[in-house]
Amino acid sequence: MKRRSPEIYPSLICSDMYNLERSIYEFTSAGCTMIHVDVLDGHFSPSMPLGLDTIAQIRKHSDIQMDVHIMSDKNEFFIRKMIEMGCERICFHVETAPHVDYLLNLIRRSGIKAGLALKPSTPVWMLEEMAGCLDFVLLMLINPGYAGDGAETQVRYAADKVRQCRQFLEQKHCEIPIEVDGRITFDNLPVLLEAGAEQFVGGTGTYFQKNQTFAENKKQLDNILKRWEEGWHG
After folding, report:
1. Packing angle between helix 20-29 and helix 214-233, nearest 10 degrees?
2. What's the pTM?
3. Which of 5, 33, 47, 123 has the most CB atoms around it within 10 Å of its CB?
């Protein structure tokens, strides 16, 4: 399979909720063109850090693109809201969607890239019928909870899950990117790249490491990606 250049999207819920305007400025100033936006309803996941009005205001006042991850039992409601805002990418969880095909068509008819998200314990064969309808897959590598919760660690089988998903997609002749979300760090990033992930959600273990500025963290990430790409192509 032809590998794409990897991308890492800053996770909005890991930024400073008190200074979101400043956070968006830091993202764009550092060269980030897309952010990861978690839309949670307080049921599928107990966390609920961002309201729809907040997301709409960011959309109104910034050109930064949005990679939206819906974690909800009410998928259609939130999908339609994200479509109204004109977000660039939307994924939702297969575990909470009785009408997956309908929702994927709803997103794609709007000209928005559509993906499915899987919790860590959800088998990749759940993508069986829908693989050809997807623009990307998001694999959660932690259980839904609170961003920055130190008690919640990345599942031990994270890299194996990525490899399994990549093999599954290749068997389906489906060359779409795998996005991974959950405790991505400077140390495990190369392992996940090697396993087949190409898009990453950058949170407290990367972009928001407290001992460095956002720009410094991005520079370190860029260096890791550059070294990996040189090794892959070389």
Report:
1. 40
2. 0.94
3. 47
